[in-house]
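Section 5: illustrative case.
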């Protein structure tokens, strides 16, 4: 098995007791190649220490090979490199040096390519959504653990849905539909009831799914409304970044002249996204937005978003100001505004539903943006909206970062609620 040491053989006429150093010189002081050292290292690692040949032992006659006739005389082999020296040499080799060698027996590890960036972002988004709705999810999913299909199960479900801000109307609709489905399909397991509830919830929320259609007008004028504190101005900044990813040029109008520092806040978002903001030190909100529509048309901007002052729906005279803004936008561009969006805070529960009704009656809403689903929001309010005022939910937000504003999906939302 040590036949690869044959290149160290002494000439046959030399005495056997010649020292090791002289025998190496007699062989012509042949240098050992790097690959040969690696093969020796592998063999030394594989052999037990007692099996290594002694420095002064004579080698057995070499076996016949095509390169060496069987009649060749036997001769003594020089001392094999010591195992310790070979180990030291081997350990000194870098991974990049020996892993490419054809003689290595090391099995190459499988290299798994990193996932696509879009897939990573999607998984991160779903994780944050599930975390934001974890309280409601735990209350709902815990009911089905080891439960029997009886009246107690439905009563617990009713309580959990009401506590999630779904509202009486949506809760009764879901439970009646669920009872009928359980009877007609003869369910016997609680897991089947849970799957049926998820299916009913998806069917209820699916009409709220709608894609924001771009390019149908230039500029596409969007009027953004909402009460103070719901994240309206922040949502405008995030939405501007989202639209830029679709190669849309954006212009913002600082129409919230009622709240202090609202103009400065929108200006900061404009600087972050490299977007122009039309603003005035003081003046009428309708006049600012009128000028912004004209500027967007002159510059051939794709999307113009108008921030408006936060109004409580109970303040009728302030709601009338919003109606005036809408009329002024129509004077600047006859078919505008093309979108009237309301931003609502998911933490406000049934109050959010009241806001939707009031602003829809005043302005004719075309879509919703639901924010702050990452906090203590219960999430069921979207089911209540779907049942009583099914206005499309364009986007939902689960955090402060730009990428935390994402399009609404009924299936993703139902999965986050029901685990």
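Designed sequence:
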């Amino acid at each position: 098995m040590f036949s690869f040491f044959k290149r160290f053989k002494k000439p046959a006429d030399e005495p056997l007791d010649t020292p090791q150093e002289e025998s190496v010189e007699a062989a012509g002081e042949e240098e050992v190649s790097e690959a040969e050292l690696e093969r020796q290292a592998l063999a030394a690692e594989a052999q037990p220490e007692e099996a290594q040949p002694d420095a002064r032992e004579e080698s057995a006659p070499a076996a016949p090979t095509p390169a060496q006739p069987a009649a060749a005389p036997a001769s003594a082999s020089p001392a094999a490199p010591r195992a310790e020296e070979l180990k030291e040499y081997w350990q000194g080799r870098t991974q990049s040096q020996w892993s490419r060698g054809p003689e290595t027996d090391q099995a190459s590890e499988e290299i798994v390519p990193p996932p696509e960036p879009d897939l990573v972002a999607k998984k991160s988004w779903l994780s944050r959504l599930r975390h934001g709705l974890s309280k409601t999810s735990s209350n709902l999913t815990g009911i089905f653990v080891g439960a029997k299909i009886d009246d107690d199960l439905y009563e617990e479900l009713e309580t959990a849905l009401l506590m999630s801000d779904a509202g009486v109307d949506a809760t009764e609709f879901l439970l009646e539909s669920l009872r009928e489905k359980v009877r007609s399909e003869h369910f016997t397991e609680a897991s089947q009831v849970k799957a049926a509830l998820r299916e009913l919830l998806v069917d209820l929320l699916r009409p709220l799914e709608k894609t924001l259609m771009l390019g149908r007008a230039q500029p596409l004028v969007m009027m953004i409304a909402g009460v103070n504190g719901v994240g309206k101005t922040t949502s405008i900044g995030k939405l501007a970044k989202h639209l830029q990813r679709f190669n849309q040029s954006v212009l913002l109008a600082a129409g919230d002249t009622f709240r202090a520092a609202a103009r400065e806040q929108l200006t900061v978002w404009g600087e972050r996204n490299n977007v122009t903001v039309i603003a005035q030190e003081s003046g009428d909100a309708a006049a600012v937005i009128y000028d912004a529509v004209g500027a967007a048309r002159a510059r051939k901007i794709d999307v113009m978003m108008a921030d408006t002052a936060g109004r409580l729906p109970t303040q009728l005279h302030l709601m009338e100001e919003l109606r005036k803004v809408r009329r002024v936008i129509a004077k600047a561009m006859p078919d505008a505004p093309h979108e009237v969006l309301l931003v609502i805070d998911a933490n406000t529960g049934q109050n959010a539903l009241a806001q939707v009704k009031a602003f829809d009656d005043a302005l004719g809403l075309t879509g919703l943006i639901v924010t702050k689903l990452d906090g203590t929001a219960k999430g069921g309010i979207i089911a209540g909206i779907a049942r009583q005022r099914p206005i499309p939910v364009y986007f939902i937000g689960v955090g402060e970062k730009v990428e935390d504003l994402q399009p609404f999906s009924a299936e993703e939302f139902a999965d986050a609620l029901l685990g």
